[in-house]
Amino acid sequence: MKKIVLAMFMVSLTAACANLSQYTSVSANATPKEKMRACLMSEANSKLQAGTLFNNTMSATADEMVNTCLKKLALQAAGISEESQSTAESIIANLKNLNSAINAQ
């Protein structure tokens, strides 16, 4: 697994300005390994673009990316990924509105 993550870091680094969509998306029929690789590449690229890819040790960053992808893939497999995203956004919006109302008093 660490070899895969290291390889993705290298590809992300050398292809920072390239279109990585071919590596970050897979079909619904993809194997779990293919889905994990695509997710990890997407996470690495997102962190690279945000400037946070190298903030921690490689091992810590890889662990974080793996945990994120495991959660995402589990939600997708359960069929509640989109619902979870919408619910989280709704909760954040409600808390933001509540916070604004409290601060306005």
Structure description:
By secondary structure, this protein is an all-alpha fold. It has helices spanning 2-14, 21-24, 32-50, 58-78, 81-104. The longest helix has 24 residues, at 81-104. The termini are far apart.
What structural category characterises the helix and strand content?
Answer: mainly alpha
Portion in strands: under 5%
Order of SSEs, N→C?
Answer: HHHHH
**How would a crystallographer describe the biggest sheet?**
none
Helix content: over 70%
Secondary structure tally: strands: 0
**Distance between the first and last residues' Cα:** 52 Å
Radius of gyration: 17 Å
Unreliable residue runs: none
What's the arrangement of secondary structure elements?
Layout (H helix, E strand, L loop, with lengths): L1 H13 L6 H4 L7 H19 L7 H21 L2 H24 L1
